[in-house]
Amino acid sequence: MDSVQVRKIDAQKYLVATVFIQNAQFAFDRNYDYLVPEAIRDEICLGQRVLLPFGRQNTPRRAFVHRLEYRSEIASNLKSIDAISDPMPWFDAELLALVETLAIRYACPRGRLAQHMLPPIHLISDKRDTWIQLVNREEAQLLYDNSSFTSLQQMTVVENLLTYSHGLRRSDLLSLADCSASVLGTLEKKAIIRQVKELTPAQIRELEDTDLSDLNDLEITEDLRLPKHLSPGQSSVLSGLLLMYETVKQRRNVQALRNESEAKETIALLRGV
To answer: Among 140, 173, 208, 232, which residue has the fewest nearby CB atoms (within 10 Å)?
Structure first.
């Protein structure tokens, strides 16, 4: 088998992005190197989502930029990033380190964990998109309360649509519920959801702004209750963070009690001298 050819040029010539794939399974949860094209060198940064060709079939996938570095030589078969998915970075170095820690602690692929840490509604593209809504909110709520679904994925879809009363973009709903298009097809046949096709970006933005305005009503309480506007995956991540916080807090309290006890013993010994 021929060895991979290496292209060598002057130092600091090639900008290479190390990424991990969004919503990847464990088998693909590792770092991949991609060449950053000249056209987006000045725009790409750490923590952004990018679009790239993945696998033998060069399937379009989203990935998170984990590291950026210049190299003087690269493999001749190194693939290039197609485009930047979102102009703003979702993660800084500290949050990326948190993703690594949580992925190890909870045995979860980094791409899937990072996906659940994103806002439920993503940035809007210039393309028209299908919008998914509940046919009858009251009936859907009754079905959800009685667990009248044949699969957990169907229940998760309805749960997300109950949370966002005006509906969700089809692509975002599939991502949030972590399900296939067939699940939506089944719910549509049962007249539980409907697809409103060919919404313009302005119409989608208006619906999203209406839902996002509800977040202003959230109150932060001392008992750190979970907001109602989180997806199941995001609630799981936040619950894990709160559990870690409580664990650290308890350990510190125990250490403080030990220190206090040792101090009292020392004072007693000194007084006895």
So the answer is: 232
Task: Give the C-alpha separation, 183 to 140, whole Å.
Answer: 15
Whole-number Å distance between alpha carbons of 233 and 168: 16
Q: Look up tokens 């667990």; give the residue.
A: 147
| Contact between 178 and 232 (Cβ < 8 Å) | no
Q: Which two tokens stand for residue 167?
A: 């509906």
* Global pTM exceeds 0.85: no
**Residue 268: pLDDT above 80?**
no
Amino acid type, 263: A
- The torsion region of residue 224 among left (phi > 0), alpha (psi -120 to 50) and beta comes to left
Q: What element of type H or E holds 202?
A: helix 201-213
Element (H, E) at 42: none
pLDDT at residue 192, as a whole number: 92
- Side chain identity, residue 25: Q
Residue partners of 91: CB distance under 8 A and separation at least 6 = 46, 47, 64, 99, 114, 117
